[in-house]
Write a structure and sequence with these properties.
heterodimer, A: MetI-like fold, 2 domains, 13 helices, disordered N terminus, B: Rossmann fold, OB fold (Dihydrolipoamide Acetyltransferase, E2P), six-stranded mixed beta sheet, 9 helices
Chain lengths: 282, 319
């Protein structure tokens, strides 16, 4: 190693300051860890030929895209995925927002316990829960029904849909609500004209999580919905099991697209600043 | 009282922790600015919120123009309240903020517009209709909040420390403007503050509160010149307290006359001489404690630390 090369990291360290350089290094490792697998999907999805000893694909093309898109159920699965995502998000909003408001604004016995209950639902291993849900579903005839799948999707979103909006409601200053009452608005008008709009960024973020969570839900849908209700995620299971990883990468990219579009829309619609506020980052 | 706008009769409001106010009686006349003054936790805000409808009361009555309002929710009461902060709705422009209450009262659009611009003119903030609250300073926001309340032409305007989050200079300016608007419009105002200077400067009448009950009620001059208790004497203005033979003697610094030498009502020695602009503050050590007085710069040249001073009191209180 020449003197010059040996100087280089030291030089970088000096220009950034030693602490800074360490921070940048950690960030780089983190980014690689975080985005590496995602980036790896790109060459994988466009590989026509990719066999063991080669580090990178030997031949690029759209062979697997054509294959995946030619699958008979893909369009139906995409439609179903969005149907469940929209329906479960809207329904969860309708149920959870009043609940979140009550939990945020009223002090009553067992309030913290109820908040905790929503957390517990997420603490259980999902597969165990789905098994017992499956038994109940058979009894009450929800197996293989739209409602059955919808309930499964909502179950996964409950925690965010309660906790995030409750936090958002709590951060609305009481005086702003009282000022609306004072100006002549009843409690309901106050809620819709003042409380809800001010808490909206936090609620929008929760809804986005719910939507993306529903798009990504697979195990429950597989157990409750198949064979009648196929979503992109359940289709992907089949693709991954039966075909090379390349097909899976293609499918993964197809699923990522709506999520990215959604994030962009959210950014434009409610604004980056408000979004950051919803995430409590600002 | 024939002219009573607002009457609070034997009102009691206690919180679960035992704090609150008990057996409060207050009458406010039309066009009067009454201030509830006291340290935090004395119950002044509790009374104000009870008038506005944000506190349920456990006993007594609140009447406006002779009609009881205690059964009404805040939105039905003929009162308007301005809080210390977070009055304006951040997602609405100034215009939307001001229009909200007028819309609810079904005021026609053209009239809404005219009244809003007239009111903005009055609080000296014309042309801010399209701004959002976040784009304005704290003082400007409070002006808009007051303007928004005034627009609804309340029978009684309730102000809960509206200036205490602002810095001293703006606070003083806002005080003067509020007083002017209040006299121009002849509106009845109940004002809450912990700042005795603000209370003195602004009010027709001041109620000094202590631990949930009324300590004294009177004009600023009465409260200053004839404090009924040691608590009021201590809270309002500056006061020397001297413990003499089991009694407490209270003398305001301006009533302490000094002369070099001995043989006054009380003798002492110069402790500090401090120049404070157009006057000089002098403190003296006495057998009963430290006494403060104000003298002119010319007079102050006669005194140095340790010099004997003879004091005479032109006015004093005993508690």
């Amino acid at each position: 190693m020449s003197m010059r090369q040996a100087m280089k990291p030291a030089h970088i360290a000096r220009s950034l300051g030693k602490k800074r350089a360490g921070g940048v290094l950690i960030l780089l490792v983190f980014m690689l860890f975080f985005y590496g697998p995602l980036l790896y999907m790109l060459p994988l999805a466009f590989a026509n030929k990719y066999e063991y000893p080669a580090i990178a694909p030997t031949q690029y093309g759209f062979q697997w895209w054509k294959y995946v898109l030619d699958q008979p159920n893909v369009v139906e699965a995409i439609v179903n995925s969005f149907l469940f995502a929209f329906a479960s998000t809207i329904l969860a909003l309708i149920i959870c927002i009043p609940a979140a408001y009550v939990l945020a604004r009223f002090k009553f016995k067992g309030r913290k316990f109820i908040m905790l209950l929503f957390l517990i639902g997420n603490a259980f291993p999902k597969i165990g829960m789905y098994t017992s849900i499956g038994i109940i579903y058979y009894r009450i005839g929800l197996m293989g029904t739209f409602l059955g799948v919808l309930l499964i999707h909502m179950l996964g979103t409950m925690m965010q849909m309660i906790w995030l909006p409750a936090g958002a409601f709590r951060s609305v200053p009481r005086h702003q609500e009282e000022a609306a009452r004072d100006a002549g608005a009843g409690p309901i008008r106050t809620f819709f004209h003042v409380t809800l709009p001010i808490a909206w960024p936090g609620i929008a973020v929760a809804a986005m999580y719910a939507f993306i969570g529903s798009l990504g839900e697979s195990v429950g849908t597989l157990m409750v919905g198949l064979p009648k209700y196929r979503t992109m995620m359940t289709e992907m299971y089949g693709v991954i099991l039966d075909f090379p990883a390349t097909a899976g990468a293609v499918f993964a990219l197809i699923i990522v697209i709506p999520n990215i579009v959604l994030l962009m829309l959210m950014r434009n619609y409610i604004g980056g600043g408000a979004l950051a506020k919803g995430f409590k980052m600002s | 009282m024939a002219n009573a706008k607002l009457e609070i009769i034997d009102m009691t409001k206690l919180y679960n922790n035992g704090d609150g106010v008990k057996n409060i009686n207050i009458t406010v006349e039309k066009g009067e600015l009454l201030t509830l003054l006291g340290p935090s936790g004395c119950g002044k805000t509790t009374i104000l919120r009870a008038i506005g409808g944000f506190n349920d009361i456990q006993g007594g009555d609140i009447r406006i123009d002779g009609n009881s309002i205690i059964a009404l929710p805040p939105e039905k009461r003929p009162t308007a309240m301005v809080f210390q902060s977070y009055n304006l709705w951040p997602h609405m422009t100034v215009y939307d903020n001001m229009e909200f209450g007028l819309k609810l009262r079904k005021v026609p659009k053209a009239e809404r517009k005219a009244r809003i611009s007239e009111m903005l003119e009055m609080v000296k903030m014309p042309g801010v209709e399209k701004k959002y609250p976040g784009q304005m300073s704290g003082g400007q926001q409070q002006r808009i909040a007051i303007a928004r309340s005034l627009l609804l032409r309340p029978e009684v305007l309730l102000l809960d420390e509206p200036f205490s989050a602002l810095d001293a200079k703006i606070r003083q300016q806002m005080r003067e403007e509020l007083r002017k608007i209040q006299t121009d419009l002849n509106i009845t105002v109940v004002f809450v503050t912990h700042d005795q200077e603000e209370a003195m400067a602004l009010s027709d009448r001041v109620i000094v509160m202590n631990k949930g009950s009324i300590e004294q009620c009177g004009s600023p001059a009465e409260i200053y010149d004839r404090p009924v208790s040691r608590y009021v004497a201590d809270f309002i203005g500056e006061m020397n307290f001297l413990q003499i033979k089991g009694k407490t003697l209270a003398v305001r610094p301006e009533y302490v006359k000094v002369a070099p030498g001995k043989g006054g009502d009380l003798d002492g020695y110069v402790r500090t001489v401090m120049m404070l602009g157009h006057y000089v503050e002098m403190t003296m050590d006495t057998d009963y404690g430290i006494v403060k007085t104000f003298i002119s710069e010319d007079e102050s040249r006669a005194y140095h630390k340790g010099d004997p001073v003879a004091m005479t009191f032109s006015k004093q209180f005993e508690y």
